[in-house]
Every structure is written in C-alpha cells, then in structure tokens.
Design a protein that fits this description.
This protein has about 325 residues and is of the alpha/beta class. Helices cover about 45% and strands about 20% of the residues.
C-alpha cells in the first residue's frame, strides 16, 4: 500500500519514520528547514517507545513532486493549515484513495468530505506526545503512540482491515479500530481541550494546572462542558467518560506538554478554533452552555489572529 503523510511535523514525521523503518512504501510532505534537513541528513527519532534511530523515507515539499496516486493518505497538518493542505493532496488522490484524518478537533473530516466526498474520508484519532527538537529531529516521550480509525458508521469493512494491516508494525505505534470512532474522537476532545486550553490560558504546563486546586476545579468544569456538548451532538458517550478523562490526565501528570501550549510559547499559531473554540461553537449550535470554553476562546482569539497574520506575512 502506497502511503502519503500530509504534514511531517512532530506527529506525522514520527509515524512516517516508524513506517519507513518497517520498509513500508511511505512518502512524507514537509516544508522549509524540516524538509531540507530530512533530505540531507535523514529523519532522526529520539523515542522512549521506539528507541533512537535515523531513517530515510522519501520526502517532498511541492505537489509538483507527486507523480502517482496514493492508496492511503494520513492527514496530520494543523487545523489552520487545512485549506492549503487539501489543495496540495488533490493530485495524490485517485478514485480508490482513502484519507484518514489525524487532526485535532471534530470538524476535520467534514472539511475533507466537502472536497473529496464522504466515501473517501475516514475519521482518525491519535494519542502521542512528540515534538520537533530541531529540523529533522523528533522527540517522542510518554508511553502512548497509537492511531485509532474507523468507518463513520462503525462497520468493520474490508478497507478498514486492509488499512490496519498496512499500518501495523512490530514496534513504535499501535493501530486500533474502536467500536465507535466518533466516541473516541470526543473522548480525545475532552482530554486535549483541557490539556491545551488550560495550559494556554494559565501560561503554565498542565502539571501545575493539575496540582493547583483552583485551576484543577476549572479544568474539571471544562471536561464536563466538552462531554455535554458531545452528548448534545448525539454522540453516545458513556457515563464513565469524565472519570476516564481525569484518570488519563492523572496517570500521565507531568509526562506531557500540550503542543498548543508549545506553539503559543514560541509565537506560532494555535489550534484554537479546532479545540476550545470549536467546542464553544458547537455548544452554541446545540444549545449547550460552554462558559469555560467561551472564555478560553475569547482570551486567546487576539493572540491567534496576530500570530497567524505574522506567519503569513
């Protein structure tokens, strides 16, 4: 199976390196200094799960370098880069291409469906703590590196089985087909909106948010809001999802830092409208109040607009 990874950032490059190490047919899309380093020096991984290694997958930076149709595209760019990335992959998409979105937020699949149609896009979810240390160098910490994906209707189709087989490797990442991918998506939303939103709001790593009673109480209310919006949207979230979210955050307390917070500290755009802003927007549409998410959106909106404008100039 020919695989294209659209967005060789911290997440896409890590998964691409694992697939490359296993001799899978994989092409990575990178840009700027990241692209230059990968072409010149290979892709270097420093991982607590997969070990330290260097691999040399095919890397491209322009759609003019695409000379074939791909069987599978893993779509892993930041939400605010979606429009440009969708345009980029058009020449790589054939009649039988399947796109699995690994983006944060619950609107990613719709953006892709609007362009490529419902049949060609699968929802995915990923849990991984990885960062770009320097161009072409990815650090992965924590013990979870997985991809969950599935059909929107929950059926275990032959193509889903085929994709799982193509992505299965001996080590470094775990691939799962959950019972309901939409439930998995909203379960992650509860985690990442809390982790990212509270860290960016307080300008502190989540370990400090978690260990402070005042901010931890706000975080718990934020989780409740995300769950309520998910249920209000018709997602059959289980009654234990709140405790499950708290347990996940507690178990990994101090082990990870939200990538959105890292972006904010470095003056880069943040995924505000895919996370807390997205929850607030959906909550308004389905009639579920989201005062915590509203406040986080409002507090960070000025920064988001300024950082995006600065990057585009």
């Amino acid at each position: 199976m020919k695989i294209l990874i659209m967005g060789a950032g911290a997440v896409g490059a890590y998964f691409g390196s694992i697939l490359s190490r296993e001799k899978k047919s994989v092409t990575l899309v990178a840009r700027g200094k990241n692209y230059e380093s990968m072409v010149s020096n290979g892709l270097k991984i420093e991982s607590v799960v997969a070990g330290n290694f260097v691999t040399t997958p095919r890397v491209i930076q322009s759609s003019t370098q695409i000379d074939e149709k791909f069987d599978l595209i893993l779509f892993s760019v930041k939400g605010y880069d979606s429009e440009e990335a969708i345009e980029f992959i058009k020449t790589a998409v054939g009649n039988n291409t399947v796109i699995v979105t690994l983006q944060n937020g619950v609107s990613s699949r719709k953006r892709l469906v609007d362009c490529f149609g419902d049949e060609q896009v699968l929802q995915g979810v990923t849990y991984i703590d990885s960062t770009i240390v320097s161009p072409g160098v990815i650090s992965q910490s924590g013990g979870v590196c997985n991809i969950l994906f599935g059909e929107h209707n929950g059926q275990i189709t032959e193509r889903v089985k085929g994709i799982k087989e193509a992505l299965t490797v001996s080590s470094g990442m775990d691939v799962q087909i959950p019972e309901n991918i939409n439930v998995s998506l909203w379960e992650k939303m509860a985690v990442v909106c809390t982790l990212a939103g509270m860290s960016c709001l307080t300008r502190e790593e989540f370990v400090d948010v978690f260990n402070n009673p005042t901010t931890f109480n706000i975080a718990k209310k934020l989780i409740e809001e995300v769950i309520a919006v998910g249920k209000g949207s018709g997602i059959p979230l289980k009654n234990n999802v709140f405790d499950k979210t708290i347990g996940y955050l507690a178990e990994r307390n101090g082990q990870f830092v939200a990538s959105m917070y890292v972006d904010l500290k470095n003056g880069r755009p943040i995924e505000l409208y895919d996370l807390n802003g997205g929850v607030a927007s959906i909550g308004q549409r389905v009639g579920v109040p989201t005062p915590i998410n509203d406040f986080i959106h409002d507090a960070l909106a000025i920064y988001f607009k300024r950082s995006l404008a600065m990057r585009n100039n």
